[in-house]
Amino acid sequence: xxxxxxxxxxxxxxxxxxxxxxxxxxxxxxxxxxxxxxxxxxxxxxxxxxxxxxxxxxxxxxxxxxxxxxxxxxxxxxxxxxxxxxxxxxxxxxxxxxxxxxxxxxx
Length: 107
Known about the structure:
Largest sheet: none
Number of helices: 3
Mean pLDDT: 75
Number of domains: 2
Radius of gyration: 28 Å
Number of strands: 0
Shape: elongated
């Protein structure tokens, strides 16, 4: 009997979760997608974001260090990409010129 109540409560919470997430989506028949994999994935993602938000609020210093490290890593990757792209474009431009003698070598 207790398991039956728990299962009903779980199904009710799952359906409420789907309704909240699909309000803006315009899906009319929610019962049709109740057990679909997409609806379960949406609820799972919602739970991940809730957990992440709670951890960010409770561990502020740790979160700030992680976010700063991520930002520095992304910025460094972007700078490396820009430098490599610039260097390769100079070589490509030089190879396309006609009559280029190439690098001057000392004998």
